[in-house]
Amino acid sequence: MPKDSISLLSQEELIRGIKENDRKVMSSLYIDVFPKVKRYILQNNGDEDQAKDIFQEAFLVAWQKVKAEEFLPQNSSAMQGFLFQVSKNKWLDFLRSGRFKKEQTLSGFSIEIAEEKELGESEERTLALDVAFQKLGESCRELLKQFYFENLSLEKVAQSFGWTTQTAKNNKYRCMETLRKIMKP
To answer: Which residue numbers delimit the RNA polymerase sigma-70 region domain (predicted)?
Structure first.
């Protein structure tokens, strides 16, 4: 099946291909729609790994709807439009989420702790943080140490663990969430 042959398929053929898990059809659909989703996410504060994750989620939604026979094509590009719209909605949901906002503010974490130490405002909090930090798993401690105290970029942290940058970002977030849970009384 040539690269642009997805446009030659009717929506019924496309849906049948998805129902039958036809790799060529699904691959062609990916090739046709993913670049548009990626461009949208990159233009809206995202990166390529996030675009891949969002598109994967949208593709799963579309696949489930087709399998459950809940997807009814309205026009010749209904599936492509549906995939793009689900991706767009998922990305907007992520941007509105507390998770996105937390990821944006986590980089201020080490500065906040350093200011507390300098100002002597909360020696108890610093001690509690040290205790909580020791309760984290070894990989979380190492990840946070490299990022916050050694000031390594996420790319460098990812390299040291053999991860992608997105994996390092996700793991950093999870470690911080674990640290916060330990800190809560």
So the answer is: 34-98
